[in-house]
Batch of 4 targets.
Target 1
Amino acid sequence: MDNASCASNTVNADENPIQDIDPGYLQAVVDRIERLEEEKSETATAIRDVYSEAKGNGFDPKVIREIIRLRKQDPHELDEQEAILHLYKQALGMG
Amino acid sequence: MDNASCASNTVNADENPIQDIDPGYLQAVVDRIERLEEEKSETATAIRDVYSEAKGNGFDPKVIREIIRLRKQDPHELDEQEAILHLYKQALGMG
Amino acid sequence: MDNASCASNTVNADENPIQDIDPGYLQAVVDRIERLEEEKSETATAIRDVYSEAKGNGFDPKVIREIIRLRKQDPHELDEQEAILHLYKQALGMG
Amino acid sequence: MDNASCASNTVNADENPIQDIDPGYLQAVVDRIERLEEEKSETATAIRDVYSEAKGNGFDPKVIREIIRLRKQDPHELDEQEAILHLYKQALGMG
DNA sequence: AACGCATAAGTAAGAC
DNA sequence: GTCTTACTTATGCGTT
């Protein structure tokens, strides 16, 4: 990192950040974040659109979300959790 | 929409979705969502990295987040809200 | 409600709230909210403690949360969702 | 804690929780959590009601939320954050 | 009834 | 390693 990008000097870098700000670097940071957030937002919209389309075709979005969630999990972990769940259900008379 | 994509027939589309599922369509939906979610996740990581780098350069990530939040708002709306906030603060002796 | 509690007059109640604030009412509102939020926070802590104790006794908190979640749902709704889930899984070869 | 409450034995407590469940203890845990969650839910409703009433009296709920948020912070911390915020704003020409 | 906001819960990362 | 804090997602609520 370029020294010019330092937001504070070395004397009290931890508690007094109110010195030596590089405006150009800060601007660049903000710009990059805003660009990425826009990208993320667009992707989120695209995801919502897919769910919405699926719903329009008679599918249940909530259940599709569940499918997505299940597929994200490690199969072995999933099996374990379901075994424990089954066990607890029985202990509670929910079997 | 193609009829083949219908998850339910026209007789009881609202309450009995358990017929006429097009597996290919459902698979495509799931694939698209998973692809988009991965994209979103990568973007989220990139955002975190920018904050992290900025922090390493002495900037306060929390305040940068606040900056991003403020810039996202409509300036006019923002001014109004701040005016009301100021008013409430005074009414509460927080001025 | 007492007229004195009005935050705005009748001329433009919707868009110009910057008049006629009753400081006492606003203070009361803030006090009530803060009191209730503290209460809520204490309850949340108590819940965490129960999970924590259960974990200490060898139970899996994640699965207990799942149990709680399942019990909150309407049994009929639950059955439907699980039937649809099963259907989708089969369509995706996850059966 | 009573040994009878143990959910697993000492041989493989970490990875095989599927033994020695005390159903009574599990039931008690679930009951306590459900009771506390109901309590929390009621408090949340009461909070919403206060905001709603305030809104009916012409106050802006969003700004009240901001007030609550600000008052929750440590005043010293708050001042510091605002100082940094001011600094960043100036660096970005948002002053 | 659909849309967005706001809360709440679960998850993951970072600090001590 | 624990423990809190922040981010993400999901649900519920109010609004239009």
Target 2
Amino acid sequence: MSDDQLRLDQMLCFAIYACSREITKLYRPLLDEVGLTYPQYLVMLVLWEERSATVKHLGERLYLDSGTLTPLLKRLEQSGLVSRARSRDDERVVVISLTEQGAALKQRANKIPHELLCKSNLQPEEFLRLKGEFESLLHRMHHMRQTD
Amino acid sequence: MSDDQLRLDQMLCFAIYACSREITKLYRPLLDEVGLTYPQYLVMLVLWEERSATVKHLGERLYLDSGTLTPLLKRLEQSGLVSRARSRDDERVVVISLTEQGAALKQRANKIPHELLCKSNLQPEEFLRLKGEFESLLHRMHHMRQTD
DNA sequence: AACAATTAGATTGTGCACAATTGAATTTAG
DNA sequence: CTAAATTCAATTGTGCACAATCTAATTGTT
């Protein structure tokens, strides 16, 4: 019985881990067209919503730290999509802002969610239900880890 | 309207991506005790089930390719948990086998799934329901990508 | 004012992921 | 039987993730 506990197909964690990677692979061809990686796309999503954001804020929205974000943001800067500048008010803070080119890319990215929904063959209501399930699990896991 | 489609909080993909990483972080302290990373743990799960497996077979079970597996398996070999050997029958194939030490590690790993279930605060029936949901989504995504 | 504690971001180092290419072994077709 | 196609693993190169450490700026305490 304790043997059975270790079977791969019983692992919820594996299903989610593999699922996440499969979804990223579905995105790739669409993101290639706009020249972004998947994590870069997530950063751009936040910036398209908020125009500019601190590294700290991006980290809180995406659950990423500066070790991941700093090099990623430097690459987005190299691509000409964002600018990075120390805040005048607080020299510790780095503010990331959309360049004109970065803002313009939004138009080309707009079709991506719809195309992916089509690719996935999910009904909108099932999509929403799954999103709810994952978000509730996500918040639960995150809260769990904070209060450990 | 097309603006709303690009909001981060509407993204199923992000919920899954973040969820997967949070779960891995819950595992880390438990896996540290047995000296494995999360992907190494997944490889060991397959080997504890099957005693030995080809690189190709491991890749099929875990949805990973040789570019990921080869260096990972070399590290497991360095740790003394597995051995790697070309097949006599077909020199292209590399067979990965548990060493005695690798097989013995199973005893120490047995408690991990239960500890994680406790950490997660999920009821067993909810755990099973979620696993079903995510597996069905996983297979759907994978199949989608194969028949694109 | 002075100094300890905290905070924000950068840096370093390890280990995945994965696309693309390579090379050797095997299978298939002509 | 042999040449082309396929298969399996390794290699190369890029880009995350993340722990740990570091530096500089700010805040809190006395």
Target 3
Amino acid sequence: MPVPKKHSPAMQEKYLPSEIEQAAQAHWNTTQAFRAIEDAGSPNPRPKYYCLSMFPYPSGKLHMGHVRNYTIGDVLSRYHRMRGFNVMQPMGWDAFGLPAENAAMQNNVPPAKWTWDNIAYMKQQLQSLGFAIDWKRELATCAPDYYQWNQWLFLRMLEKGIAYKKTQVVNWDPVDQTVLANEQVIEGRGWRTGAEVEKREIPGYYLAITKYADELLSALDTLPGWPERVKTMQANWIGRSTGVRFAFPYELDGKQEKLWVFTTRADTIMGVTFCAVAAEHPLATHAAKHNPKLAAFIDECKHGSVMEADMATMEKKGMPTGIFVDHPLTDDKVEVWVGNYVLMSYGEGAVMAVPAHDERDFEFAKKYGLAIKQVVAVEGETFSLDGWQEWYADKQRGRCVNSGKYDGLGLEDATAAIAADLAARGLGATQVQYRLRDWGVSRQRYWGCPIPLIHCDGDGTAAGCGTVPVPDEQLPVRLPEDCVPDGSGNPLAKRADFVDCACPRCGKPARREIDTMDTFVDSSWYYARFCAPDASAMVDARTNYWMPVDQYIGGIEHAILHLLSSRFWTKVMRDLGLVNYDEPFANLLTQGMVLNHIFSRRNDRGGIEYFAPDEVELQRDEGGHVVGATSKADGQPVDDGGVGTMSKSKRNGVDPQSLIDEFGADTARFFMMFASPPEQTLEWSDSGVEGAYRFLRRVWAFGHASQTAVAAQPPMPAELPEQLAAVRREIHLLLKQANYDLAKFQFNTVASAAMKMLNSLEKAPRHAGHGAVITEGFGILLRLLSPITPHLCHALWIELGYGDDIIKAPWPEPVAAALVQDEEELVLQVNGKHRGSIRVRVGADRTAIEAIALGSEAALKFMESKSAKKVVVVPGRLVNIVV
RNA sequence: GCCCGGAUGGUGAAACUGGUAGACACAAGGGACUUAAAAUCCCUCGGCCGCAAGCCAUGCGGGUUCGAUUCCCGCUCCGGGCACCA
């Protein structure tokens, strides 16, 4: 083991961050300080602490969100290491994805090269920030030895029926002849071509996450370490609801058919006045055969975006099909409409419409003059067709009316009675339904993990074998790394060397699947691979040692999709016997987003062009408020789109590199932690960085000035002069509070506490015992600060002779003896208003405190000689006299 | 539109899960040191009011409480998610 390298005997007077940081990083490197080894077998195993930050997409440079995210993770890692945990903090690359293809189009560089270059640069950036990462565990999802296990597990899912094929609806750009991602659709048009986007149905593969819906929902209760809001979001997303699935029978071409719908409001079934089906529904297709107007309308519905937000806000339109179905309980004729707001992929692709008690149906009925029949009443309220009122849909107070035998029943009783009657007629039953839909994993893109399937179509004389899985021994299906996408679809289609293959079953010529997997697949299990990055299987025993992740840290924007798909993936791996845990992330910290201004301009093709903040000049009024912006390049105005999350596609990221270059990693880290609590959004601004730098310089200066005092290692005297005792007491109080704040992840006040400690130490009077107080106090300060600014603290710890290596020092705890005091100050209130303060002996009883309070000058003045009705005493805090 | 958050001085924020609103900083202004600048140090810094006393003040409007930034109800604005950005 190399001996830690000390600085030259003469300590630098000036704070030189780059020198200090390089030396500290070299030390950690040579000592392999952050190499994490499983120690379950050792006689005294330390508790393990797997600290994981969401791995970055290698977009080119780190951005502020990364610095924030990884500093939080690093603070927690270093803190737990000093607390005696066996800490593992890995890092890797979420390396497949769309931006690489966009960059390829722009620069004519293959996505693979672009991605690997970015990884190299960003790795060096991460290393310069001094994160306590075990780099031996690094992985990239675009490497075949990683993604082969995506393929392998996909095949297992296929065998178990969890993966299956069905059609999916995608955004189609008719000009580029390509599938667009949602973010590439801007106001219904393709971002590059400006062409109106169409919906298109194509085949794709799905993972049956709904099979796990119940467990994904109920297991949220086993995650006390998750923020409540994230669990609420996931629960709402899964959206378990109990309702009734039932059918409207009808006759078509002489055949008896059934139109199935699902509703959570079966109690309103007697108020059904029409049904609505999706444009893609078979009934719509049938009706359109002889109705050109309807066919045109259906065609219109198929234009536009597939996004739920767009569906929800667009104008609700419909057209009757002329087909009537029978009401399942009354046998009344009910007309079927096609509605643009009904989604084929949701439930049955058809809904019953009860205009009187559903706001959307109400508006639709008013617009098209359809019947509205009130079947629920609330006492004291009068139903009117003039406008929608909230109580029309009231589930608690509503009672059935105009509903025959169900009149007078509330929601639950009515639903039960109606479900029973429907069941008796063979037309329906109670059913649990989820809002959660199965996970479509096929992407018509190049830069992703190939789906390991082969299509054997036959040779004209004989039928082929159909879709055949690639045999395990032929995995991985390697993605060619030299393609350059041009925006006109998947370049793999043109690669005969990739597409052409032999059918594994019959040996005849066949085609390889060219769709790749959703990149969420890559990120759904990387945390497990970090535990055993070189395993010859997907995971091994080391995974069960480290998992679950003890602390997961990442942006709140991942609250649903990434975190839910990871939970699902874990459960699939468990059910395949690969791992022994149920949930991947025991504790979750969702950091707020780092926001910045978004500047954009519409280009001449109708697409949108984004401007980076440093490419824009701001116009301000006299008050300093921003009133407009122009491009520095051409002087023409650009739109200020408000603030939003820093993202590659919106080009509003800020590169932290200049900050690191100018002030050093410690300043960048300190500022990020000090600026605001981790869970809160942070609107980026450059100011404040100087203040952080100034503070670190003061820490260094104080250390330099205290060298001799600390080197003497003076013992703490039994009695300290009062002012010094006060300084010592404050240090320990601040430490107590800081330890409490650390447990709450409130790093901004921990940073404040360090600043307050320095303020206090600097003001400590030079009485007998000064050396002992500052030696102890500065030692506390350095250890408290070391997870945030590890380089500075590493250097000072050695320079002042506290020890060889601060990361091996124990975490400081407040000393009870330092905290004692004889008297304390209580706030005095009269009628809840702050009127002064009183001093009382610590531990004084209530009557003594009351007496002092009532006798105080301030109390006499503000009580205006009235007598006290009540005296509220809050120990250690305040006294409130109510008159 | 639906689901989840947030809002406190000129700015970032704090207030120990109902108890002194604005800790700690940034910016600004004033001063010291200096030939000068940088750096450093000291002072002021929510509003009304000459000071003080006092009053007002935590997005807006109500409520509960001796006491509300904190809890409840109703809004406004901002951010995140809405299934192909990651």
Target 4
Amino acid sequence: MINLYKDEDKALVAVDCIIFGFDNENLKILLIKRDFEPERGKWSLMGGFLKKSETLDEAADRVLRHLTGLNNVYLEQLRGYSKVDRDPVERTLSLAYYALINISDHTEINEEYSAKWFNIDEAPSLIFDHQEMVRYAISRLRYRAQTKPIGFELLPQKFTMKQLQSLYEAILGEKLDKRNFINKINGLDILLKLDEKDMNSSRKGSYLYTFDELKYRAKVSDGFTFKL
Amino acid sequence: MINLYKDEDKALVAVDCIIFGFDNENLKILLIKRDFEPERGKWSLMGGFLKKSETLDEAADRVLRHLTGLNNVYLEQLRGYSKVDRDPVERTLSLAYYALINISDHTEINEEYSAKWFNIDEAPSLIFDHQEMVRYAISRLRYRAQTKPIGFELLPQKFTMKQLQSLYEAILGEKLDKRNFINKINGLDILLKLDEKDMNSSRKGSYLYTFDELKYRAKVSDGFTFKL
DNA sequence: CTTTGAAAGTGTAAAATTCACATTTATTAA
DNA sequence: TTAATAAATGTGAATTTTACACTTTCAAAG
């Protein structure tokens, strides 16, 4: 078969990852300090180029694994960015992804990169259109977290109600009422209350919960939809 | 500056458009019958390749203008599709867009393509991953139509409440209660009720409305958010 | 061993929103 | 004048959301 596409322009394609974490207080993003041109020394998202033999999801996965060593991370594609001169070196398309990782379990970041966690509202300015990507990522995360039980990706497997509430407050950027929050979460009936308590936060101790994924899936296939 | 990216793989990048229309009864998509290889004779979305000098939005716009002659059409990027062999000819990335056009005003489709409107639930099967793109487009449209007043893009400038309700029913795929719908729409206070009536649908005639964009914008900047 | 401090845990009533639902009005064609 | 057809209109019940404050637990301090 002759190649009908041979006269078309090709482009470099990159993926850039907005990596979210949560430290029990603030929503954070992981940024790297570029030690290569262009824009050496500036802060940016972690990214990489798409290879011929992989999908975008695989590329994002690879980039993430390379930086954090983590596999099976929650990743969602956001959208493509395509300003003609967004990268000064060469015409490069970028597809933004966001990732949710559990900081507490995983502190080992590849030292090859000078990576650092920043509160989302204290992050430095970023190269290219990365700022715009972050804004979009936050808005998507806000939406998604109210629609799908993805918040748990940011928490340790066992967590307290307080942690869960603080997480949602950080994601939504607003304070929530404790009793209403707990009532709503319990109403969803997708958490498992453990016998175990976390004794760090108070003398009384607070119960630990886990997300009951199996129960959630069963409920979903019965027509249930998560809605915070 | 030496080109640091020169060893990276490049890819063809396409845009594919899900073009929605509404005929006062059903939500429709405009498909073309391919008269070129690969998959000649099969139905597909209208698409085209991204050129070096344009953004994705511009490419989608160009593709759309070429097919329909329309400018300033509502277009929203959906996401990238990147299965390695999604196009059998060559590795091609595609960015899906959806467009909302007002069928009644514009019937002139470029005859160069054999294009045809299909009800969304009666569309033929499509080439490549276009089917998947359509599904995603519908779900995004459903969400967006409840969040932003984009429905009006699919209607003539002057429309009846009945038309508006039928449109939302078609988008959401469910019947709505007439009185509740009207009460909700009127509650938003973003329509202008005209003195004019549409006398085609009944002896009594039904009032025509227009979307009052200025009022809507003013309300938005006062903190209002459209929510159906 | 009693007191104190600090966070955890718990329920209800008011307000707002959503939902279900049926009759009257206007017009023209018969 | 009557009949037929779609347009227009409001209310009460049910549900959901919101606001709100006191009691419990336990270890550390005295």
